[in-house]
Design goal:
Structural class: mainly beta
Strand order of the largest sheet: 2-10-9-4-5-6
Strand content: over 45%
């Protein structure tokens, strides 16, 4: 059974930073074989793709977070990360990690990020 467990969310002021982690287990193949993504859902809005990292560490980002967020992975620890810098109030959302690309429906339970002053 695939398990994705996010952590690291919290409340920060605008301009602040957070680092999200996602511990993965139960994959059919090695964690390193899968592209991994972060998606988010703000209150009252649909799910939004944030970033993807490929098996070969190629990264892609939504325009709304480019230059502020950094996705990374540590295959030896089966862990995905998302560094969030220069946070804005509009980044407030539940952040989910996902196995695969932007369209994946294999996600964890999410971690709440709240940006407010």
């Amino acid at each position: 059974e695939v398990q994705l467990v996010e952590s690291g969310g919290g409340q920060v002021q605008p301009g602040g930073s957070l680092r999200l982690s996602c511990a993965a287990s139960g994959f059919a193949f090695a964690f390193s074989m899968y592209p991994m993504s972060w998606v988010r859902q703000a209150p009252g809005k649909p799910l939004e793709w944030v970033s993807t990292i490929s098996r070969t560490f190629i990264t892609s980002y939504a325009d709304s977070v480019k230059g502020r967020f950094t996705i990374s992975r540590e295959n030896a620890k089966n862990t995905l990360y998302l560094q969030l810098n220069s946070l804005k109030t509009e980044d407030t959302a539940i952040y989910y990690c996902a196995q695969g690309g932007a369209q994946s429906d294999i996600r964890g339970q999410g971690t709440q990020v709240t940006v407010s002053s």
